[in-house]
Design goal:
This protein is 17% helix and 17% strand. The protein is α/β, with parallel strands linked by helices and 354 residues long. The protein has a single domain, classed as Rossmann fold. Strand 2, helix 2 and strand 3 form a beta-alpha-beta unit. Helix 2 runs parallel beside helix 4. GO terms for molecular function: cysteine-type endopeptidase activity. Belongs to the peptidase C14A family.
Amino acid sequence: MSFEGVSDVLDHPGVETDIVTLASPTTHHKEAALEATPSQSSDASSVCENSMTSDSSDTRWIGKGIPVQDKYNNRPQAATPVDSHSLKYRMNHKRRGLALIIVYEEYGGSGPVRRKCAQDDVNITVRAFQHLGFEIKEHWNLKEQDLKRILKEVAATDHSQSDALAVIFMSHGGLNEKNNREFIWVYDGKVDTSVLWKNFTAENCPTLAGKPKMFFIQACRGEETDKGIQLNKQKGLRVSTDSFDPREKEDYVIPIHADMLMMWASYPGMFAFNSNNFGVKGSVFIHFLCQVLLENSFHDDLATLLLRVTREVAIKYESYVPDNSTRHSKKQIPYTVSTLMRKVYFFERNKFIV
């Protein structure tokens, strides 16, 4: 791009930069020859189990994974906050929930360079998540031991009167080439990125079971950059969607890793930029994420909001680092992984519809 501006920087250390278990819903089959006993109906379904064959797993063929040996009795227990077929999460508890902001500006010893954009990132993040009704807690420059302790303490907190949890993490990051695992920088070293969410599965944090748990990660994920591709206009494709009506209210079983969303600033292996151009002040991803939440959260559900974030980062931003040809005029796109099972509407604070 041909204009004067401040060079963009990256959140990468190598660049100076800134279960519920409740019984499953019962399905009645006219074909069933045997009448289910009370103990049978509390299992998985009213289908006679003698007529069923065991499920298999592809992971077993590569030497991983073992079948579950117990029969429902050893499952963790949690109260369900919403009916099994509800299209929306319940967002009318007494509290919206906690937004945990974990931010790094400085590092000890031989750690990466200072993140000059840290305060700007926190300022806009606080505004956005207060706007959504979250209680804000900030933690700066934590050591590994303190980070893990705080995450465990939050997971052990009673969230039964909360709608959701949000964790916003801002630091440097990268990819460990030895084991191909992503890491994030803390004050005194590196930790696996999974440390951020592993305490919040339904098994480890039962008072958040069946509720949305959102993790937003501003950090580089490798050293590669995206030069982009030029697209020409063409006719769009028609898209259809299917929907169904909520059904009976029943106890049900969910996977322990359900109801979680992780959104990274960039695609795996790619840089995440910071900028003081294009109206951005700080991390590009954090800027667009918070801008969309502030401007559109009372109109759209979370999935639609995050699609907008992805689109705006991808289309509106292009890096400006004119003194570094390998970083100049590059693109960035956020990356989302989700096991959410329902829509999240922040604006339905006092009106819950199933």
